[in-house]
Structures are given as C-alpha cells and as structure tokens.
Specification:
Elements lengths: L28 H9 L8 E9 L2 E8 L4 E5 L4 E15 L2 E6 L3 E4 L5 E16 L6
Length: 134
Amino acid sequence: MDADQPQTPRTGAQRTVEPAAGVFLEFDLNAQIEQLKHEPAWQNGRNAKTMVKYPDFRIVLMLMKAQTRIEEHHADGRISVQTVAGHIRMHVAGRDFDLPVGHLLALDHEVRHDVEALEDSAVLLTIAQPAKEA
C-alpha cells in the first residue's frame, strides 16, 4: 500500500467507521437497515450496528431474520426495544410481549429476557448504562 494514500478506517464488521458520539447525530434508519442487509453477517440470521455510543447511553440497530432467536440474557442498565420493521416477541419474567412495528417495551435494569423474530425485523435497542459507583 502507498503510505501517501488515505486509509479508510474499518471496524470488526468491515464497515466504515462513522461517528457514534457528538453534540447531535442524525440517521436515516431505512438506509441503515438496507446497509446491514447487504453485510455478510445478515446471512447468518442477525446483524447489528451501534449507532450511538456514550459512556452512559447506547442505541443499537439490530436486524433479525424470521424465526431467529436471542437466548435469555440481561443488560446491566435499563433498556427499551422499539420495533421499526417486522414483528418480534419478547419473553420477560413469564410474560410474552408482542412488538409489531411501532411498539416499544422498556425494561428495568438486569431483567432477564429473550427475543424471537416472528418475521424479518429491525429493532432499536436503547441502553441506559447505570452510573459507576465511586
């Protein structure tokens, strides 16, 4: 490689690095979804991209193919899950929550849950990280 040519920074997902923090960030979610569908990870049933990343706050765009599942887990912080395309179902504390397009579910910190895609789906996962204790 020529040392005088600018290098395009890459992430582990082999995509161009974009700002994930700043005074303001604006996204075209439909364009982001299409980009994720063209990456190799989508062929395995899921793909995700952290859109916003601050020490105490994150937003992740996550795609899941129909009939795929994310096994039970929890987040340290409070979360919200908003379906922007498709239809998912979340299993939380013995309850099922159907989340078609336009629905949002918020969970307190450390609540165990799993996620099931009923059809090809895109969701926005928002995570509010707990404050670090001194």
